[in-house]
What we know:
Layout: E1 10-16, H1 28-46, E2 52-61, E3 64-74, H2 83-100, E4 105-110, E5 114-118
Antiparallel strand pairs: 1-3, 1-4, 2-3, 4-5
Amino acid sequence: xxTISIPKCTASLCIGMRKGYTDQSIELNEIKKILRxxxxxxxxxxxxxxxxxxxxxxxxxxxxxxxxxxLSFIQYPRFPASEIxxxxxxxxxxxxxxxxxxxxxxxxxxxxxxxxxxxxxxxxKKITFV
Length: 130
């Protein structure tokens, strides 16, 4: 058995399960299809293989509960990439998903940084402020 060890480099992307601030749901198969599209672009363009674990979650804020997808990316030893490649690749995936899934903002968490991509400062009207 071979053991391959590389430096840890991870990212997590959180994106809502509703298009815009509507009640129109995004299905798991839809996000997987769009994720595969951008992965194929990255593979063909620069041999960048970013595997993602996609799971359902919920964001809870001020009495508001919003279903989300969470995409977890790792530095996979079989297809190593630099930290910069992983960071830039996940940011590109986030922007692509935002566009295709009509999202106003997403949050991406890296090992040493949190980045919010935002189209406007609009807030979901279902969130109440005290």
